[in-house]
Amino acid sequence: MTSRPRRIESLLFELGGQIDWPAHSDQVPSVLSRLSTTTRGRLHPRWLPVAVAVILVLASILLLSPGAREAVADLLGVAGIEIRFEPETDPPVGVELDLGEAVTLEEATAAVDFDVSTLGALEAPDAVYLSSRPSGGRVSMLWEGGESLPAAGESNVGLIYSQFDLDLAENELFVKSVRPDNGVRAVEISGVIGLWIDGAPHVITYEDAAGNVLEEETRLAGNVLMWERAGVTHRIETTVSLGEAQRLAESLTPVG
After folding, report:
1. How many CB atoms within 10 Å of residue 196?
2. In the chain, where are the structural domains located?
């Protein structure tokens, strides 16, 4: 059975109970007085209550609660059209760094073939991004800057942890394009050898076994720690010291 359209009286009655009315004197007599003066001879008395209700709704629209806005949408709706009020959301952390598509950690884990890890020494990341480069996919986790992870440059990001599956060329680790004021040194992370690059921003180039070259610049004006384990390349970019970066790297924890 098709339900009958809701009467305007019932909708306005429901709306009245949801409006957060301001704490001041009753304005209805004043509105009625003005309407009777300015609309005399032009507004039929039978429409006066409806006109008053509409004016009051419009005057208080900025004070409406979410439930009241839904009642207004119901009142103004057209058959077959549903009006929804979506809450405003802030953009994810690091959206300006071009790291790919913002996703959930679960979505990122399901999208790649390698086992995704997170930094167990930190809380859950503030944002997760998924990129199709390299071809096996790259998962990047971001943490906002704070006391323990100072934000780098003009961003509000304190650390980026990226991981991707890259079949490197034989006897090749990373090809580095760095400036004279960059420092590059080999370091140990949980029994494997990695690279620590500090100083000015720089470019890092990867070459896979098929001869494909992937080149990318650092996103933050910070330091980079890179290492490879079981075919997965890990990369931490941050402003913290080498010792702190090593501690974070050694806290890798599988997701799930």
Report:
1. 20
2. 8-76, 95-254
